[in-house]
Amino acid sequence: MTDAPAPTPAQDPADGADDVFEQKAVRLAKRERLIAERESAAGGAFPVSVPVTTTISALRAEYGDLEAGAETGVVAGIAGRVVFSRNTGKLCFASLQSGDGSRIQAMISLANVGEESLARWKELVDLGDHVFVHGEVISSRRGELSIMADGWQIASKAILPLPNVYGELSEEGRVRSRFLDLIVRDQARTTVRARAAVNASLRGTFTAHDFVEVETPMLQVQHGGAAARPFITHSNAFDAELYLRIAPELYLKRAVVGGIDRVFEINRNFRNEGADSTHSPEFAMLEAYQAYTDYHGIADLTQELIQKAAVAVSGSTTVTWADGTEYDFGGEWARISMYDSLSEATGRRFAPGDPVDELVSFAEEQGVEVPPQATHGKLIEELWEYFVKGDLVSPTFVMDFPVDTSPLVREHRSIPGVVEKWDLYVRGFELATGYSELVDPVIQRERFVEQAKLAARGDVEAMRVDEEFLRALEHGMPPTGGMGMGIDRLLMALTGLGIRETILFPLVK
Residue 157: CB partners within 8 Å, gap ≥ 6? Predict the structure, then answer.
C-alpha cells in the first residue's frame, strides 16, 4: 500500500478558452457514455442519490489520528469532490473534498474493485467530479486517512474543469465566481461560516436581553430612516412608485410605539450610491431599539454584541485578521466628543454655534472638500473625518453630533446645538451608529420639514416628511435608545477583509 505521487493540478479555466472548450467536449462525451450505461453504472452521470453513510469530516474527527498503516475494519460510504487525482497502474488515488473543505484519500485498487471497475475509474473520473466511494477506513503507509474502495460511483459529473487548486483566483475572479472560490480557497469557506456564527451570536445576545426579532417592509411607499439615495421601482399591482428601503428604522420605531419595547431586525438594505472597499449598494443591516434607555445604554449593548461576536468567530475578543494582524476588541471602549476631538486635532476651538461661512473658510484653507448644500453639521463632520478619523485605532465611540445632520435624534440634554448620537469607529471606518431617539412628534415634524427644504434645494440624500411615521409618534413613543450596524462591516472588522469578501455574492458590474 502506497500513497499517491504528487497530484496533477486542475486546469485553470483562465489558461485558455480553447483548452477549456476541448475539456468540456471530452467531459460531455463521458457524460453521454455514463447515461448510456445508466443501468449498469447505477445511475449514470447524475444519480438522484448515493448511499452515503457518513461524512468526510466525521471520519477525520474519529479516525484522524490513526497510525500509519492501520486498518480499522470499519466500512463507510462517503462522497466528495475530486480535487486531486493520480492514476498509477493497478492503484489509483484521489483526494475527495467535502463542502467544509475536509479531505480524505480514496484508493481504487485492482485487487479490491476488479479490472473493469478500475478501468472505468481511469476513463470516466475527472477533477471536479463528485464521487461516492465505499470501503474500509484505513491509514496509508504515509499516515494519510483513506478509504480503500471496494466500490465507487460518480455522483455528479463536472462538465467544466476546476481552477488551479495550487494557485489563487484573482480578486475579481473570486467575486464573480464565488462558487469556484468556495471550492478552492479555505478563507472563502471560513468567511461564510464566520458570518453564520456572527449572526447566531447577535441573535443569542439579543435573546438574552429579551429582544424580539421582527421583519419590516423592504418595498416602501416612502424611503426614510437614513440620509441616502434610494433605488426606485414600480408596482404594477398598485400602479405606484415604490422604494427599496434604505433603513428599517421608521418601521421598527412603529413597533416600539405599539409596545414591543425591545425589537431588532437583521435584513437587507439598498442604497443607490457608490461602491468601494467599505460600501455596497446592497448590504445586510442590524437595527435595534430599546425602550427606557439612551445612547449610553445602547452603546453598552453594542459593545457587548460585538465582543461576543468576536468570541464566536475566534474564541477570544482578540481576533486575527486574514493578513495575520491581531486586533483587540476587549475591555471598555473609549468615548470621545466629536467637537472636542476636532478642536484638539486642529488647535482651533470648534463649537455648535460656529457660522457656516467661517467653517467654509477654514475648510478651504486646509484643503478640505466643501460638500454641496453645505451646512454647519456637514462641514463639522467633513473636518472631523479629515483631521481625526484616521488616527482612531482601537474601537472608539465618537459622541455628540451636530443637530442638522441628525434629524431623527434627540437633542443633547445639556449641550445646545448637538444631539445624543454616537458613531462607532473600528479599523478606521464607521461600524455602527447609535441614538437617544427623538420621540417628540412636534420636533420630529420640524426636523422633517427642514430636511424637505434641503431636498427641494437639490440634496438627493435628504429625508421627506413621513406623515404615517409622525402619526405613530403622536400616539406616544417611550424614551428609547437605538442602534444600527452593518453586518458586512462587522465581518470586515472581525476578519480584516474587504466588503466584497464578506458578502457571499456581491453585486459587480
Answer: 27, 30, 31, 34, 45, 46, 126, 129
What contacts 24+ positions apart, CB below 8 Å, involve 200-206? 200/312, 201/305, 201/308, 201/309, 201/311, 201/312, 202/266, 202/286, 202/305, 202/309, 203/266, 204/308, 205/304, 205/305, 205/308, 206/262, 206/264, 206/288, 206/305
Q: Which CATH class is domain 17-156?
A: mainly beta
Provide the pairing of β-strand 334-337 with 396-402.
parallel
Cα within 13 Å of Cα(236), Cβ side: 0
Q: How far apart are CA 182 and CA 501, in angstroms?
A: 11
What does the DSSP 8-state code read for residue 114? -
Among 84, 85, 63, 90, which Cα is nearest to 75's?
A: 63
Q: Do domains 17-156 and 184-333+394-502 have the same CATH topology?
A: no
Q: Which strands make up the sheet holding 219-220, listed edge to edge?
A: 219-220, 240-244, 232-235
Instruction: Please state the separation of Cα 307 from the chain's center in Å.
Output: 17
Encoded amino acid at 320, one letter: T
* Amino acid identity at 194: A
The domain ranges of the chain are 17-156, 184-333+394-502
Considering 5-19, 38-52, 266-280, the range whose residues carry the highest mean pLDDT is 266-280
State yes or no: pLDDT of 12 exceeds 80: no
**What is the C-alpha radius of gyration for the chain, rounded to an integer number of angstroms?**
29
Is 423 annotated in a binding site? The answer is yes
pLDDT digits (tens, 9 = 90+) for 30-64: 999 999 887 555 678 899 999 999 999 999 999 99
- Give residue 460's pLDDT: 74
Identify the residue whose cell numbers are 448590504: 283
Residue 439 Ramachandran class (φ > 0 left, ψ -120 to 50 alpha, else beta): alpha
Distance between CA atoms of residues 289 and 211, nearest Å: 9
Task: Tell whether the model's pLDDT for residue 276 goes beyond 70.
Answer: yes
Contact of 255 with 261, CB cutoff 8 Å:
no
Enumerate the H helices of 315-422 as residue ranges: 338-346, 356-366, 376-387
Residue 430 marked in a binding site: yes
Return d(Cα 422, Cα 353) in angstroms, integer: 20
- The answer to whether the beta carbons of residues 350 and 401 sit under 8 Å apart is no
The pair phi, psi for residue 262, each rounded to 5°, is -130, 110
Q: pTM (2 decimals)?
A: 0.88
Fold of 184-333+394-502: BirA Bifunctional Protein; domain 2 (3.30.930)
**Residue 48, Ramachandran bin (φ over 0: left; ψ between -120 and 50: alpha; else beta):** alpha
* Cβ count near 370 (within 10 Å): 14
- The yes-or-no verdict on residue 11 having pLDDT over 50 is no
What is residue 91's predicted lDDT score, i.e. its pLDDT? Answer: 95
DSSP secondary structure code for residue 491 in this structure: H
Residue 138 and residue 148 in contact, taking contact as beta carbons nearer than 8 Å? yes
